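Reviewers asked in the last cycle whether our approach scales beyond single polypeptides. To address this, we selected a multi-component target totalling 463 residues and predicted its structure end to end. The input consisted of the following lines:
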Amino acid sequence: MSSTTPNPLALVAELTHRCPLHCVYCSNPLELTKRENELPTAAWVRVLREAAELGVLQVDFTGGEPLARPDLTELVRAARGAGLYASLITSGLPLDEKRLDELIAAGLDHFQLSFQGAREESAAEFSGTSTHAQKLRVARWVKQRRVGLTFNFVIHRQNLDELEDMVLLAEKIGAGRVEFAHVQYYGWAFENRKRLLPTREQLNRSLEIIKKADERLRGRIRVEYVVPDYYAKYPKACMGGWGRKVLLVKPDGNVLPCHAANVLPGMTFENVQAKPLREIWQESDSFQRYRGEEWMPELCRNCERRTQDFGGCRCQAFLLAHDAGATDPVCSLSPQRAIVDKILSDVNAGVDVARVPPAQAEWLYRANAK
Amino acid sequence: MSTPDSESRPRLAPGCRLNERSQPQRVLLMPERALRLNGPSLEIVERCDGNHTVRQIITELQKIYSKAEPQKVEQDILGYLARLKEQRALDFE
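The resulting structure, written as structure tokens, was:
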């Protein structure tokens, strides 16, 4: 198998599950890794080197909040030393200008700043913290320095009416790139789905606004968009295909083919403390399980789209149809598409789409990692 | 798609850079993506350093690819630079 296994191109380094925010759609697992179980610096440095040797070009330092790791500057330096492009996926706190300068001096290539809304009040509601003003400060600091800057807005039913203001905010600060990412329904977001999934009308309006922004800002700001795939006709090519392009290393050193794979029953993951990354990528059961086409149900194996979407998302198949080996139920060809249609018709059936006042919203806020 | 001014000096935008010279496949690294560079595309991107003008890049490439029609080389370069600008990989100074 190893001779035909593709090289991974990107490493997602989930450094910690600690985070000052408590977002209601956090992609971290419901069971968070404790600080004392996080990989030490030396192990991460080795992982970065092994990833580069395996063909990885880019590393995303994420979490939780990667700034919560005091050794982040050292890890950025190690990534650059190994020849990797280093991105920081962050909420922007805790951070001051001195630390930002240290990160850039260590070779940080790209700073991706998350926003929970365009306004203080909504951002505070969805993140469970008051951090919007700090994010704006951080954005201006980054803009004054020579490093890539992306604004990432996580959008959903409750903040879609702020979309135009989000575009203006990115324009005002002068981000090089802006990402509008509809919430994907895993982890905490799956728990809060009823309050997050937009109506079809909202979705269509958001697509129009984003299309106009893209045309207007072309050449100045790169506009990118992630759709909520419950509304799609075909599933997303989750992670670019299982074990095909991306690998994730969790705070405790477990290596996963995608963010949410730990929800899949009967799946065991290898750890970088016990095995080299190359062996895990090429031979481990978890990476082999849904790699290629052999695992596919007949519907997918005979479908000409199998080389584009790779059967969709395994975690979504499990969460919605309770079978990780099924065709992704968001696919219009799936015999289980009715599950998704029922969810959508509930959301769209005359339900009041007005924003629920914060005091009435019953969010399940993401917990703290111990 | 607008054609870049021949006297402007293209420079890789913040967050965009070439990978190390020692690596076997040269790529232009940018946020969330990487662009494979081969032959002419590498020759062009290596000159997007804020020092070369568009005009100079065209002249130098016409020398390197002297067997190709000069007019065609110029058009290809202008088209490539405009595409990189659209992807926010270049600033013009």
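Chain B has a mean pLDDT of 94. We regard this as preliminary and will revisit it once experimental data from Aim 1 are available.
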